[in-house]
Amino acid sequence: MQTTTDDYTPIQAGDYVIVRCKDAGVHAGVLVSHAGRTCQLTQSRRLWYWRCKSGAFLSGLAVHGLHEDSKVGAPIDVILTEDCEIIRVHADAIASFSWAAEYHP
Questions:
Q1: 95 vs 5, which has greater pLDDT?
Q2: pLDDT digits (tens, 9 = 90+) for 1-27
Q3: pLDDT tens across 70-87, in order?
Q4: Are 19 and 80 in contact (CB under 8 A)?
Q5: For residue 25, what are the CA distances in angstroms to 1, 2, 3, 85, 91?
Q6: CA 103, CA 50: separation in Å to the nearest integer?
Q7: Closest CA to 41 of 66, 20, 14, 23
Q8: Domains of the chain and CATH, by start
Q9: DSSP result, the chain
Q10: pLDDT tens-place string over residues 37-52
């Protein structure tokens, strides 16, 4: 299915997103604000090791959610700088980030 610009809804505050940062790794949480290459998340979980339930790449996480083997941090509020990409998570995938067990090495 081809997407047109008519189908696009901008990412906005309140959306559950995945953020890939230059130095801070990958986080998933609720977007509070975004300006330039900086964003603020609430209920953010750092994805230390992640695996998709299906598919590949961060886009696979956004569409299908986290596999149970993934290792994620505790939920926190965070300001992330040097954001490389912000991806909206599909509604069906959001729950997998919430129920993921907190990783303790």
A1: 95
A2: 455 567 788 999 999 999 999 999 999
A3: 999 999 999 999 999 999
A4: yes
A5: 31, 30, 29, 11, 23
A6: 11
A7: 14
A8: 13-86+93-99 (2.30.30.100)
A9: ----GGG-----TT-EEEEEESSS-EEEEEEEEEETTEEEEEEEEEEEE--BSSS-HHHHHHHH-B-TT-EE---EEEEE-SEEEEEEPPHHHHHHHHHSPBP--
A10: 999 999 999 999 999 9
The pLDDT of residue 4: 59
User: Do residues 103 and 48 touch, judged by C-beta distance below 8 A?
Assistant: yes
